Amino acid sequence: MSDSRGRSHTPFHFGFVLASLAVALTVGFGYAAILAVLIGFQLPMGNWWVAMLQAHGHAQLLGWIGLFIIGVSLYFLPRLAGTPLRHPRLPAWILSLLTTGIFLRAVSQPLLAAGLEDPVHTGLRWTLGFSAILEIAGVFCYIFLLVITLLGAAPNRAALQTVRIFLAIAIVGWGLYSLLAGALAFHAGFGNNRLLHIAWNRFGIGLFTGFVILPTAMAFSVRTFPLYLRLPAVRWPVARYGQVYLLALILIHVPVLAQLTGTSFASSLAHLSPIGKVLRGGVLLLFIWKLDILFRWYPPWTVNRIGEPGPERRPTRPGLPDYGEFGRFELLLYAAFVFLALAAAVELLDGALVLFRVASPFDPDALRHTHLAGFITLLLLGMAPRMVPGFLHKRKVAFPGLVVATFYLATAAAICRIAPLLLAGILDRVPYGLPVSMTAFGLSGVLGWTSAAVLACNLWMTWRGRAASANAP
User: Fold this and answer.
1) Does the residue 78 lie in any domain?
2) Secondary structure letter of residue 87 according to DSSP
3) Is the pLDDT of residue 208 over 80?
4) In the chain, how many H helices and how many E strands?
5) Euclidean distance between CA atoms 208 and 101, whole angstroms
6) Which domain holds residue 176?
């Protein structure tokens, strides 16, 4: 593919997907499975477990989610902008820097907390600090590519203009999170601390979720779901939703930042955070409604463009543009947006209760896991078998039937992880509720790891050529 000036676009860098899955299966979902089993079945744990928990969270954000987003965006956005990617060799450096940094941090931090003696302890401290340098360098190289791509966009790219504000929010989020995560790693490594500062680390997770994950997901869903799922045409003011969403982010995070930095007027800003939660929950629910992914109340964008297929062409799946060659990926996308709607409703209710001075019954971890273990994980597991084969010039995913297996495994994992947190107050009062919820929590990690392993197998076989010679149905 080339732009109007004849310059060729760079091919898809599948290494980002491989690295994303490698992180997920080892220090991402791998750590999560170990920790979930230990916690859920109340097995003995050493002093390293909190450090492993922090390392797992960072690996999932920057590795499993981040590397996947980077790989897809560096292929998709230049085509959306109508300009080939400049510096086509830079993605390989980004991949190397981030992958090395993520693995070094994920290994060194738990070992640092294990209390090993010098010179190993000193070496681990330096390794943790060095990993932060690698990650910051990789993220800012990625930001550089995004910025020059957006600034060099071809004129009159209406599709890009629609989601530009979401991409701008994500760029800011990438920079803020990498700097904060790097500073925390430096402080833990060279300050001789075994753990990252817990409050600042949670603030960083919130930054990445709010500024990177959700805006990126909204931008890609607006631009791809009408095609992949035959949804209604996007004729509503998407950019306005982005502006309101940005305002909500500011209202949520500025009071928390003021509190963490000990600003004298932090208490006077405290009421802004629940207002921001109500606003963000509301705008996300309206976004889901307008996208029409869950209810299908409006006609698809193709309603006035295509007729019934001729006798020489068999019809596609009902309501969808494909024949099933990518598996039932739509189930994962529908489930993902159910979890996003749940998260938005919980956040809206939580903010409203605080505004009315009523104690919130929701554990903050419940909302965090609904966004991460529910929405974004299911979204990636669904988008991968639909998008990646096309990026690799394959006509189908290697094993379409495995996509359904991924759906059942990932949905069960999300429910087992989220329900014990979200319904803790209720389950404690139900006979056998606590042991059942703890068992479910213990199984959630294994189920999540297995879902990622099934996806990895499917994409690996697709990449290696099993689907290369398959004819389109």
Assistant:
1) yes
2) S
3) yes
4) 18, 0
5) 17
6) 1-193
Residue 159 located in a structural domain? yes
Give residue 225's pLDDT: 95
DSSP tag of 394: -
**Residue 309 in this model has a pLDDT that exceeds 80:** no
The number of distinct structural domains making up the chain is 1
* pTM beyond 0.85, yes or no: yes
149: tokens are 């791509």
In a domain, 295, yes or no: no
d(CA 365, CA 367): 6
Structure tokens at 273: 């955070």
pLDDT top residue among 415 and 265: 415
CB atoms closer than 10 angstroms to residue 464: 10
Sole residue written with tokens 């790097």 = 182
Q: In degrees to the nearest 10, what's the CA dihedral of 216, 350, 238, 146?
A: -20
Q: Residue 308 — very low, low, confident or very high, per pLDDT cuts 50/70/90? A: low
Measured over the CA atoms of residue 162, residue 245, residue 340 and residue 30, the dihedral's sign is positive
| Residue type present at position 49 | W
Q: Are 241 and 283 in contact (CB under 8 A)?
A: yes
Please tell me the predicted confidence (pLDDT) of residue 427.
80
Q: Which two tokens stand for residue 439?
A: 């068992």
Structure confidence at residue 470 (pLDDT): 39
3-class DSSP state for residue 129? helix
Instruction: Give 37's contacts (C-beta < 8 A, 6+ positions apart).
Output: 43, 442, 445, 446
Q: Please give the pLDDT value at position 48.
A: 86
Q: Is 164 exposed, middle or buried (0-12, 13-18, 19+ CB in 10 A)?
A: middle
